[in-house]
Specification:
Length: 314
């Protein structure tokens, strides 16, 4: 049986499995799962490794086979989409139903006290519940607990050009595993609103190399891409480089079931977010919904207390 047939067989099997059941399947590192499925070394190294490295920021693809199964199922079921107005459209939509004064930006939380928080500025904010929705290391700091796991970081570089290397909605993978670039896309080929008329936006992802300086990363990326596309990249204008040290949690086994619901580390303190879960905005959103539902359920059990009509989000 060839790799194409194995992919089709795996896609069929995963699509028949309920999402909740995917996270109850026997678990092992994704690289071992693929070998057990009989895939050739060629497709593992030239496709699965760069593709899954971009999904989980794990170049060795030792993340849980449950994560792999879920992600592979998603791509088997439909296309990938981008919000027309950018990823910021998601939090903006969530915030539209809240009073403007209820959201504070750049207000770092120093500590949690009972049903409230103390900001770095010394301001105290009280509420009926505290929800921690941030990256894992910050959750550990606020809860004064040892870090729950390792963070996976990435570099995201953006360039502008009037001559994109591809003018189609494709994900270009580094199948040769040479250099630092993991993948490249042209977001404006999917959503034209991402670039001015006549221009294109190029997005490049680098996995690893987290201690390097931004200037070094840009220089190496340009050198790598020149090997891919030639001297045309010399005309690309660098727009922005983002270093995201806590982009994702480590996904190695054992992986908790993200459908199980939120944890309650202390009375009136709730935790939600992508860490200790599965990569993807949908899981971050689901964990927030689960936390909100748990808060409402806890209040129903204590009818003498009710949620306040308004609060503050930091």
């Amino acid at each position: 049986m060839g790799d194409k047939m194995r992919i089709a067989r795996l896609m069929h099997r995963l699509r028949k499995t309920a999402v909740s059941d995917l996270f109850e399947l026997p678990e092992l590192p994704a690289i071992d799962f693929l070998k057990n499925e009989g895939f050739s070394q060629k497709i593992i190294h030239r496709f699965f490794m760069p593709f899954f490295a971009g999904v989980c920021l794990d170049p060795d693809i030792k993340a849980s086979s449950r994560v792999f199964g879920y992600v592979f199922r998603l791509f088997a079921e439909g296309d990938v989409a981008l919000p027309e107005q950018g990823m910021a459209a998601i939090p903006i939509q969530l915030a539209e139903s809240l009073p403007p004064e209820s959201i504070w930006l750049t207000a770092n939380v120093k500590s949690i006290t009972g049903r409230g928080v103390v900001l770095a500025s010394g301001v105290e904010i009280q509420g009926d519940a505290v929800v921690i929705a941030t990256e894992g290391p910050e959750v550990s700091r606020l809860l004064k607990k040892p870090s729950a796991g390792v963070s996976r970081g990435e570099w995201c570089l953006y360039f502008g050009t009037d001559q994109p290397p591809i003018d189609a909605p494709y994900l270009v993978l580094n199948g040769e595993n040479q250099g630092w670039v993991n993948s490249l896309t042209v977001p404006s080929a999917v959503a034209p609103s991402y670039a001015p008329a006549g221009r294109s936006l190029i997005s490049v992802v680098v996995v690893g190399h987290q201690t390097e300086a931004p200037g070094t990363v840009e220089a190496v990326v340009r050198s790598d891409l020149k090997q891919w596309f030639g001297t045309s990249i010399d005309t690309w204008r660098h727009i922005k480089t983002y270093h995201i040290p806590h982009a994702l949690p480590d996904q190695r086994p054992p992986l908790p079931n993200p459908t199980a619901g939120p944890s309650l580390p202390h009375p009136n303190v709730y935790v939600c977010g992508e860490y200790n879960s599965v990569p993807g905005i949908q899981w971050a959103l689901l964990s927030g919904r689960q936390a909100a539902e748990q808060i409402l359920e806890d209040r129903r059990k204590r009818p003498d207390r009710s949620l306040r009509a308004s609060g503050q989000t930091v």
